[in-house]
Amino acid sequence: MLIRVILIVGILAVAVLLIRSREGSDKKLALRRLSISIFALLAVIAILWPSITSKVAAMVGVQRGADLLLYLLVIAFFASLAYQSKRSHFQQRKITKLARELAIMNAQKPESSNSIER
């Protein structure tokens, strides 16, 4: 029983931290908050009633509920990896663009020589 309390408190604490983040557009923020809330609710349900995961696993053709959760977590991990990779690439392009603009703004014009050297 103690492990259930620890897991639920941990999930809710992480969900609250993730929901409090304010970066992104309003639409993306609302979608992220909704998906985090749904995930946290499903996680709490799976902790309180683990037999539900076994029933769902049997419905989709997986032997055990724990196996189903593992498969879903692998998919979530790879989705997160793909998202972070895409976001990192976008930020690198943005940094490169800003660095170029800054270099152009700070560039000094070459001194033109008015006298011809012999």
Question: Which key terms come to mind for this protein?
Answer:
single chain; 118 residues; mainly alpha; elongated
Give a verbal description of the structure.
Helix content is 81%, strand content 0%. The protein has four helices and no strands. The chain has helices spanning 2-20, 26-48, 50-60, 65-106. α1 runs antiparallel to α2, α2 (26-48) crosses α3 (50-60) and α3 (50-60) packs across α4. It is elongated, with a radius of gyration of 26 Å. The mean pLDDT is 89.
How would you concisely characterize the structure shown here?
The chain is mainly α and 118 residues long. The chain has 4 helices and no strands.
Span between termini: 93 Å
Tally of separate helices:
4
Order of helices and strands: HHHH
Mean pLDDT: 89
What is the structural class? mainly alpha
Write down the overall geometry: elongated
Strand content: under 5%
Helix content: over 70%
Radius of gyration: 26 Å
Q: Which sheet architecture does the biggest sheet show?
A: none
Residue windows where pLDDT falls under 50 for at least 5 positions: none
Number of strands: 0
Strand and helix map with partners:
Blueprint: H1 2-20, H2 26-48, H3 50-60, H4 65-106
Helix pairs in contact: 1-2, 2-3, 3-4
